[in-house]
Amino acid sequence: MCVDPQKLKDNFALVGANGLDVAEYFYADLFAREPGLRTMFPAAMAKQHEVLLAALSQIVSSVDDPDALVPFLRDLGRRHHEFGVVGDHYGPVGASLLATLAYFSGPEWNEELERDWTAAYEIVAKVMSEAAVAS
Ligand code: HEM
């Protein structure tokens, strides 16, 4: 991956310091962007907020360790296939993730981070959706 893993880790540490607000912002952005996705999720989102943050944290911590990251993403992708997630869903989710990272990064956000996070998310989405097709 042509990104600097340490920059992603540092940025995620900065963003993640805002705790569950990060997940709340992400889903508010996603459901404003794509209201039709709301019904795919449970009415009560507290648990989802926690598991999303835990998964993102796991992904970022192993971003420079493909032997750990790829199996994790493939399993996640297969489960998402069972949730009814299809390839087209990855675009809006990526846009909301980028918007969330930008928001909580504040003045630290810059074009390089935007480019690196976009590249990293594209790989995550590719591995998850390819595993879904293979399952
Ligand atoms: C970076 C990409 C993503 C990450 C890290 C992520 C993370 C998670 C996690 C950790 C869960 C809990 C269940 C499990 O672990 O299997 C989950 C559930 C779910 N995710 Fe994702 N997800 C991602 C992308 C997406 C996309 C693109 C969609 C499409 C709308 C989506 C929709 C869902 C749905 C519908 C559930 C099940 C909710 C429920 O019924 O409990 N996710 N996600």
TrEMBL record:
Residues 1-133 form the Globin domain. InterPro entries: Globin, Globin-like_sf, Globin/Proto. It comes from Actinomadura hallensis. One of its GO terms (molecular function) is oxygen binding. It comes from the Bacteria. Coiled coil: none annotated. This is Hemoglobin-like flavoprotein. The lineage of its organism: Bacteria, Bacillati, Actinomycetota, Actinomycetes, Streptosporangiales. GO terms for biological process: cellular response to nitrosative stress; nitric oxide catabolic process. Pfam families: Globin. Keywords: Heme, Iron, Metal-binding, Oxygen transport, Transport.
